[in-house]
Amino acid sequence: MFGCKTHKQAPETPVATPKTLWSDTIGKLATRSLQTMIVIGIGALAIWGLAQVSTVAIPLLLAVILAATFNPLMQLLRSKGVPALGATAIVLLGTVAVLGGVGWMIVNAVINQWDKLAESAASGFNQIIEFVQGLPFADSIDSVQLEQWQQQAMEFVTSSKFGSNAVAVGGAVGGAVGNFFAGFVLLVVILFFFLKDGKEIWEFLCRPFHGEHYDRAMRVGKATVETFGSYIRGTAIVAAVDAVGIGIGLFILQVPLALPLAVLVFVLSFVPLVGATIAGILAALVALVSNGMWSAIIVIAIVVVVNQLEGNFLQPVVMGRALKLHPLVILLALTVGTVLAKILGAVLAVPIVAAVWAAIKVWDGPNKPAAWAREKHPGLQE
Fold first, then answer.
1. For residue 287, what are the contacts with CB-CB under 8 A and spacing of at least 6?
2. pTM of the full predicted structure?
3. Closest among 338, 337, 331, 283 to 306, alpha carbons compared
């Protein structure tokens, strides 16, 4: 009877946040821009720091990629009862032996066939002049000027200025060779430890993490190793097919330096989109200089046919869709890699980007990408 009457409390009115220069639309845009600039600056500083210690950073990165590439072979040897040290020695010595043998074959072939190529260079240049003079617009081309350019080039090669420049270039090349061997020795040493104790090294690096962060670090490490290994092994198979196909064509046409050109095709095939094209152009130029116009045309046809076959049939099977990146992503990665580290950057840019994408795809779980990278419209086809 005498119960107290309850009253509903009036809802609290939200307190208005005082407006400042940083809370309106332009202020939020400025804040986000500042954050972006800081992130880019930190990234640029990290890249600059790595560039200053490139003698260490590049062998370290190459060792990681090579260790991931040879990981299945190491596991196979270990499953057969081979001790870790023995398996590492077999893989490492085998790799050095193969690389050394291929290098010796290239140098030997270049030395043996260089004179023949040099002798045919002059006649090849004359063939180019005759071909240009036979074009419909040949009247606008000064043949005397072409001959003057040829004479000036020969005089420059035989002059003392060329000799002094050659000495300067030789000194620079000597320094580069010294850095190369220093980096190569460091690469072999790092690769030895990565092959032998790679799992233990990664486990040590993940010690500061706990719980979900530890699981994420292990997932990222596994995805990176699998991506590096699959990408390099797949690319090597595709490059080998390109090199064998084009090399057979060069041998049949009796083009000088066929073996070095085939190896060059193999190496440049590791640069997506443009590598095979550059290798084909170089092979066609050598064929033009040595064997004439028709031989160069046949070489171009062989390069086109081989590239089409591996691009449409072999590469999708070997590489798989899991490692497939959009051509625009590949082009941007190649551009950035080339600007930062020249040829080596062009070779390493795409596998690094592929590994980063693989890590993002397992960021929140074994098959769960990071929230911002998840597909928002599952019905859309890639």
1. 250, 253, 255, 295, 296, 298, 299
2. 0.70
3. 283
